[in-house]
Structure formats: structure tokens, C-alpha cells
Amino acid sequence: PPLRRMIxxxxxxxxxxxxxxxxxxxxxxxxxxxxxxxxxxxRAFSRFFFLPRVMRxxxxxxxxxxxxxxxxxxxxxxSGSALARLGHPxxxxxxxxxxxxxxxxQMVSTNASLSYGQIAAARGxxxxxxxxxxxxxxxxxxxxxxxxxxELGYKAxxxxxxxxxxxxxxxxxxxxxxxxxxxxxxxxxxxxxxADEGEVDILGTAGGLIRNNDMDMTWxxxxxxxxxxxxxxxxxxxxxxxxxxxxxxxxxxxxxxLSNHGGRQLEYSLPPMEILYKIRQQRPDIFDKTEVYIDGxxxxxxDVVKALCLGAKAVGLGRAFLYAQSAYGEAGVVHLARIxxxxxxxxxxxxxxxxxxxxxxDLVERVDWQPL
Length: 372
Ligand code: FNR
What we know:
Elements: H1 9-19, H2 22-29, H3 36-45, E1 48-50, E2 65-67, E3 70-72, E4 76-78, H4 92-102, E5 105-108, H5 116-121, E6 129-133, H6 139-152, E7 157-160, H7 170-174, H8 179-184, H9 194-202, H10 219-229, E8 234-239, H11 242-250, E9 255-258, H12 272-282, H13 286-289, E10 291-295, H14 301-309, E11 314-317, H15 319-351, E12 364-366
Helix pairs in contact: 1-15, 4-15, 14-15
The protein binds ligand FNR.
Ligand FNR is lined by residues 27-28, 41, 79-82, 109-111, 132, 160, 237, 259, 261-262, 264, 295-298, 316-320, 322.
């Protein structure tokens, strides 16, 4: 269907599901075990309702914000996700170009399917991109990677700490492995996708992407070690408790991402929105000491705004951007960002908020029943 018919994030997801090779969709969509955390990540937002303020002269509503001091048109970034080329030959470059056109920020995965240099070369003038780091268990390999991306002009290190080992993702494991397998089953494989074929092979070692990660990271050792190598800001991605948020601040992290990896790692890990709420209740001082971001299950402008009301500086989306670029390339990324911008603006205006600074905890309430 034409792009203009896509009026919500879920529409794009639905289209991607129709057109993606089955294995690619299974890899993108999959989550741990019974996929409960993944589903609940999204449902968690529906327990938060708004208490809008009225009569606030909102015609000049400003949706811009910053992440680590870098400007963004909306408080939304592209979260680093592996293998964008499984969905489209241009893969990560679609994300970079789409981010540039809409003025949002992109985090590039360690397991990107193009080289870090190729992605950096796709940047527009003065475009900021960040790097998501899986720390290799060998320090020298990790060090080389950090130096490489700093040299290439990536502006921050998002250290992922919630994926030490490969998890059980049954949707992915069950999906037919080789392109011939799903061609034999009458499933469509995109014709231009010589690139895809190679990538599907990479998934032959599905867990292989996470195989070399350092399982012995600690606050005391690892953060100072990265600091000794790079001047870039360090953000820890995958914080899932109030206690660890406190330790991240004590370790001097420039930011934290509340994330359970889109429900892909530990099944029954609590939805990040609930962790955000706990930090707001128990340790609101955290929000003054470091930037807090959140990802997982965000599909609506209202989801974004709820997280900002509770103290998040910005939110990340993983699957939605993968689906957008899979189905429509760069134009899909632009369109997705515009859908979110429209929804965020409407929500802020309706709340009486003229800027992201005016998104405050009093504007949301958590209910203890689960809506529809
Ligand atoms: C991811 N994610 C991820 N995270 C990370 O730190 N490094 C990575 O390489 C990947 N790879 C990856 C691949 C795929 C296919 C998905 C769907 C996700 C997690 C990602 O950054 C983010 O935390 C979640 O995707 C957020 O949840 P939603 O937006 O997908 O619901």
C-alpha cells in the first residue's frame, strides 16, 4: 500500500509483516520465551492516563528537545538494532538519511549490517549519530572498536548491559533458516536482495551476534575502563531497577536507558515504563543527575509524552524503525518520524504543554487496573 495510507505506527508494522521475508520478520519481531515482556512493554503505557490542563495558549507548541546536548525535533531516537539490511538492501543508511531529513538522532548497533564507516558516510552535514556498544570480552577488540567509532565521528557510546548471552527466541529459532526453505513454502523473498541472502546466513548463527559479549562487566571496572579510552559520553542501555539507576549515576554515566531490550532477553523483566515510574516515586533526584531515556513498546505519541511527563528526556524505538525502512526505505523512516511528530504535538497541545519542559508528573496518573 502507498505510504500515505500509513497513518499510524502499527499500520507500518502491519505492512512490514506482509512484505518481509518470513525469517526477517521472525528475527525482528521475536522476543524471549513466550514474548510476555514484549507484549507488556506496550501495554504498560495504557495504565497511565492524562490529567490535561486547559487555557494555556498552546498555538506555539515546541516539540524539540536535546539528547546529550544534541538537538532533536522530537524527543524520539532510533534505537540501535542489528541487521537492518535483512529488511531492505540499504538498511542502516535508510535510517541515517531518514533521521537527517526529519532532524532526529540515530543510535547505530554494534551489529549493524553495514560498516560503521559506510553509515557515517551517509550522514548529512553536521548530522549527529551515536554508537551502541556490545563490549567484546577481549578488551583489545573492544578498545579498537571504540576508537574506530570515535574517529568516525560518532558522538556517544551507548553501552548495552542487558544482553550478555543469547536468549531463547522461539519465533526466530522456528523460522525457516535458508531462503530456499521459505521459497519452497511459497513465501516471498524480495528479488533485489542478494544482500539479504548473505545476511540470512549470518542468522545461521542466530545467537552468534551476542556470542562474544563480555559477561564480566562491573560498574567499578567497566565504566572507568571505557572512560580511559574515549572522551565520548557514556550511556548505559538496559538499566532495569532503581538500584542500578543509582549505581549508574554514582559511576558517572552521562545517561541511562531504561530498557529490557524490547523483551528480547530476560522474559518477565518488568516493562521499562514501570521502572521509570518507580524511579519517579522513589528517587526523583536521579532525573536531575543524569539523562534518563526509555525504550520498549513505544508506538504512539501519547506513549512518548507519558514517558517525558515522568522524567524521561527522550524515548527510543527499535522495531518500528526497522519495519519502516524495510517496507518503504528512507521514505518510510521519514514518514514514521512525521507520524510521531504529529501525535506528540497533538498530545502536548491537548495537555496545555508548550514545550517539553512543561511535561511534568502532575499531568499523568497511573491506574491500577488494566484498560482494554
Ligand atoms: C534490537 N535491540 C538491540 N539493542 C542493542 O543494544 N543492540 C542491538 O544490536 C540490538 N538489536 C536489536 C535487533 C532487533 C531486531 C530488535 C527488535 C531490537 C533492542 C533495541 O535497541 C531496543 O531496545 C528495542 O527494540 C526497543 O523495543 P521496541 O521499540 O522494539 O518495542
